[in-house]
């Protein structure tokens, strides 16, 4: 997913808790 965490609503983050504990994960790689 190439979605930016800053644009992702809190409700969306609730569905994908991996975005928070793993900022360097595959999603974090697309960040920036």
Automatic annotation (TrEMBL):
Q: Which domain of life is it from?
A: Bacteria
| Name of the featured protein | Uncharacterized protein
């Amino acid at each position: 997913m190439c979605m930016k965490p800053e644009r992702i609503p809190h409700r969306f983050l609730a569905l994908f808790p991996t975005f928070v504990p793993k900022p360097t994960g595959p999603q974090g790689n697309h960040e920036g």
